């Protein structure tokens, strides 16, 4: 399952980086990840979190509540943010995350997650980064936004190759 999910995920590199020099993360830089959540993802997430809300598991319940079909858990969608951070900054400490759910995400939809450096300050031997966090679907419809605070040991962006 994990291998299949990783193969269906694309991780674009930081837009400012060239292959010849290390890239330093700075205010305004954006890191992105794309993922399509599957039925299996939703089932496994429900088991791990004990979330048995029928909106995630029963199409009729979801439609009766006014949705097109079964929903991906909002918190599952939000896992894109720590994935982006940990992929590019191994050992980063995730301090906080606010979330605002804007639109439903349905199983099988391609979701683009991104973090954008909003503020970075040095703190002794590390950096505290305040990040704008957003997820989009269907060519730019905002489904989720918020803010994260992380502690980074370095501003060098680890290059992730899909």
From TrEMBL:
<feature type="domain" description="MaoC-like">
    <location>
        <begin position="33"/>
        <end position="126"/>
    </location>
</feature>
<dbReference type="GO" id="GO:0019171">
    <property type="term" value="F:(3R)-hydroxyacyl-[acyl-carrier-protein] dehydratase activity"/>
</dbReference>
<dbReference type="Pfam" id="PF01575">
    <property type="entry name" value="MaoC_dehydratas"/>
</dbReference>
<dbReference type="InterPro" id="IPR050965">
    <property type="entry name" value="UPF0336/Enoyl-CoA_hydratase"/>
</dbReference>
<dbReference type="InterPro" id="IPR002539">
    <property type="entry name" value="MaoC-like_dom"/>
</dbReference>
<dbReference type="GO" id="GO:0006633">
    <property type="term" value="P:fatty acid biosynthetic process"/>
</dbReference>
<protein>
    <recommendedName>
        <fullName>MaoC-like domain-containing protein</fullName>
    </recommendedName>
</protein>
<dbReference type="InterPro" id="IPR029069">
    <property type="entry name" value="HotDog_dom_sf"/>
</dbReference>
<dbReference type="GO" id="GO:0005739">
    <property type="term" value="C:mitochondrion"/>
</dbReference>
């Amino acid at each position: 399952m994990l291998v299949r999910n990783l193969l269906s995920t694309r991780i674009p590199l930081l837009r400012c980086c060239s292959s010849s020099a290390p890239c330093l993360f700075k205010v305004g830089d954006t890191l992105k990840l794309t993922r399509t959540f599957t039925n299996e993802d939703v089932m496994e997430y429900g088991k791990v979190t004990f979330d048995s809300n029928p909106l995630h598991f029963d199409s009729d319940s979801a439609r009766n509540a006014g949705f097109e079909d079964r929903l991906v858990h909002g918190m599952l969608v939000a896992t894109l943010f720590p994935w982006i951070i940990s992929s590019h900054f191994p050992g980063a400490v995730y301090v906080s995350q606010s979330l605002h759910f804007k639109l439903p995400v349905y199983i099988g939809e391609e979701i683009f997650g991104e973090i954008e450096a909003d503020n970075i300050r040095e703190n002794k031997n590390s950096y505290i980064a305040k990040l704008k966090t957003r997820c989009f679907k269907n060519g730019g419809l905002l489904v989720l936004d918020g803010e994260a605070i992380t502690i980074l040991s370095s501003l060098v962006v680890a290059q992730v190759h899909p």
